[in-house]
Every structure is written in structure tokens, then in C-alpha cells.
Amino acid sequence: WYDKIPVQTVVWVANRDAPINDISGVVSISDNGNLVVTDGRNSLLWSTNVTVPVAPNDTWIQLMENGNLRLQDNRNNGEIIWESFKHPYSSMLPRMSLLINSKTGEN
């Protein structure tokens, strides 16, 4: 239903503290396997900043139909290492978790 809204709405921004105001932004997987956003000067603006338990070439990203962006482990049956739904911005989408584990702080 969300993709049927007539006015496009941004629901999540990786680098909201350092927006890129031109077309120089690049999204890629870094040498340490994290998803990163860099600008035209190759300056790091944002990173998933997680410990990746696999070789950098063994991670990949997938944008799910529900809008969840995932960093996944290619060697471990696509295990999710990081996902945008666990880092909400200002909008809730269907299937996003509202619960947080009080012991671990995880959704």
C-alpha cells in the first residue's frame, strides 16, 4: 500500500546528519564489509558500522519489497548482519518492530 501514495515520501535516510546536496554520493560495500555512503571526494559520510564476521567480499545488500534495506552474509545463508528496520528514522512501515528487548536493546 505504501508505494501507492501519490506523493513520494522519504521514510529513511542513511546520512541524515550529513546530506549530500549534489549527485556525487556513492553507496558501496567497504573493505571491512560494511555498507557505506561516501561523497565525491571519497569522504565517509555514513556507515552501518557493524562488526562483520565474514570476509568483506562475502557481504551484500538487498532492498526488500517492504522497504527494509539489509546487509547480509553471503556465506551463511544470507544471515542479516544489519537492517534499516532496526534503525527507524521518523516513519513506520508495515512489518517494522515496535518492541525492544530490555536486556539487549535490540528490536
Please write the string of helix (H) and strand (E) elements.
EEEEEE
Largest sheet: 3 strands, antiparallel
How many strand elements?
6
Structural class: mainly beta
Low-confidence regions = none
Strand order of the largest sheet: 1-2-3
Number of helices: 0
Portion of residues in beta strands equals 15-25%
Dominant shape: globular
The helical percent reads: under 10%
> What's the gyration radius in Å?
15 Å
C-alpha termini separation: 24 Å
The averaged pLDDT comes out at 78
Layout: helices, strands, pairs:
Blueprint: E1 26-29, E2 35-38, E3 44-47, E4 59-63, E5 69-73, E6 80-83
Task: Give a verbal description of the structure.
It is a single chain. Strand 2 (35-38) and strand 3 (44-47) form a beta hairpin. The model has no long low-confidence stretch (mean pLDDT 78). The protein is built from no helices and six strands. The two termini are 24 Å apart. It has 107 residues and is mostly beta strands. The radius of gyration is 15 Å and the shape is globular. This is Bulb-type lectin domain-containing protein. InterPro entries: Bulb-type_lectin_dom, Bulb-type_lectin_dom_sf. Keywords: Disulfide bond, Glycoprotein, Signal. It comes from Brassica oleracea var. oleracea.
Key phrases:
single chain; 107 residues; mainly beta; three-stranded antiparallel sheet; 6 strands; 0% helix; disulfide bond; Bulb-type_lectin_dom; Bulb-type lectin domain-containing protein
